[in-house]
Amino acid sequence: MQIGDVTTRSLQAALEGLTARREATQRNLANLETPGYQAEIVDFESSLVSALDDGDPTSMSVGTTRSMGATNANGNNVAIDQELTGLTETDLRQQLAIEALNAKYRLLRTSITGM
Known about the structure:
There is one protein chain. Helix content is 59%, strand content 7%. It is mainly α. The chain has a two-stranded antiparallel ribbon. The chain starts with 5 loop residues before the first helix and ends with a helix. The relative contact order is 0.20.
């Protein structure tokens, strides 16, 4: 096991994508009342799968698009319920990835020190 193995790089790439998603969600929520604002949608999972298939998770790219969802009277299409649910899901996924990295590092430490 190495620190820079595929598993570690994959988890780090996933965290990058999740961070981009969290930031987009925060922008969406900050612009909840901004006339004409179109919510951002972040996709990285399909790119991460392709990168993993190619054996290089670091080649993953994060894509951001504008939502084509229904707009309200001022042209804004941020749906607060979807954004808050997405934020919670992103938080849980980030916690899971961080715990997986921590477990990997604990195993590495145990392998090195025997403790």
